[in-house]
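Researcher: Here's the sequence for the chain we discussed earlier.
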Amino acid sequence: MSVKVTPNQRFQGVYNVILEDGSERIATRNLTPGRNVYGERLIRVGEEEYRLWDPFRSKLAAAILKGMKNLPIKQNDKVLYLGAASGTTASHVSDIVGEKGYVYCVEFSHRSIRDLIDNVCRFRLNMAPILADARFPTRYTSLLNEVNIIYCDIAQPEQARILSDNAKIFLKDGGWTMLAVKARSIDVTREPSEIYRREISVIKNEGFEISEVIDLEPYEKDHAMIISQFRI
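Model: Thanks. This is the structure I predict for it:
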């Protein structure tokens, strides 16, 4: 059985892959053919190359496979990615937005930003690494323009507050946010469901309209993806 790749009917820029053994995966079209980012398998079909997207390594892939209804990230979008780390998910976002889109990658760790630059950004012209602390967005206002999407995946307390502070500066009216809540990074003494409710409350109070909340288990324990739209 040969590998079969078809566009996902619900999510622009995402592809369904049926492998030789009949198993099904998701993928993005590789913006840098011949190069992978985190050891993911590359699939060549005709003149196109695709990167398998591992839901155990990417919370965004996990959310898609857990039944996410709306993927706000589209071709040509400008995305502010808070907590880009070494670029696993950010590189798939780069694939989705394409050559005319852009991904501003904010990361606080010197080691992670070095890996992000050396292994990812230097090969992708639609990604910019920014060494900064997402808690202080005014420190990098000169480095980026208004964005359509903010994707936040940071291991910090007050994750929703940090997202909101960045949205007020950088996000277009009507833009979208995606918050990967890490319950154990906020408070290890409380139930994850309680943490999710608290973060949702913060987002609502800041003027966001909650679109959906997705529990990411079994791919990520004690994690949820909160998708919301920003209205001034």
